[in-house]
Amino acid sequence: MEVVNALGRRKAAIARVFVSEGKGQITINKRDLAVYFPSPILQYVVKQPLNKIGVVEKYDIKVNLDGGGYKGQAEALRLAIARALVKINPESKPALKSEGFMTRDPREVERKKPGRPKARKRFQFSKR
User: In a 3-state reduction of DSSP, which class is residue 93?
Assistant: First the structure.
């Protein structure tokens, strides 16, 4: 099997994954998954698509992660892994789609408007 690549985004985070056959090693920016995401919850989020179709020990995954915070990065990585798994085996798509792993979360930060302190917040109004 050749290397399959995919892209995942969430908020400001971008994850580029390269999936090849292996022993289940996940390397993020040349660091191990447990080192990059010390939180077990975020490790679980990253591995969700692999657990769903039962291929945790089958593929080695190399990741380039950029931008955003750790939660956005973890969810971007989850989307990228799910997309790569569908490229490898299209029959796994319904299972991943039913769990919501194939959906790109479109929510982004709203821009700050001029004359306001934040996007929607207004300065205190004074009648007199």
Answer: helix
With beta carbons less than 8 A apart as the criterion, state whether 81 and 92 touch: no
Average pLDDT in the 34-46 region? 94
Can you list the alpha helix ranges (DSSP code H) found in the chain? Answer: 33-36, 40-53, 70-88, 93-98
pLDDT at 1 over 80: no
**Sign of the CA dihedral 12, 17, 25, 101?**
positive
Rounded distance between C-alpha atoms, residue 26 and residue 117, angstroms: 42
pLDDT, tens digit, for every residue of 74-97?
999 999 999 999 999 999 999 999
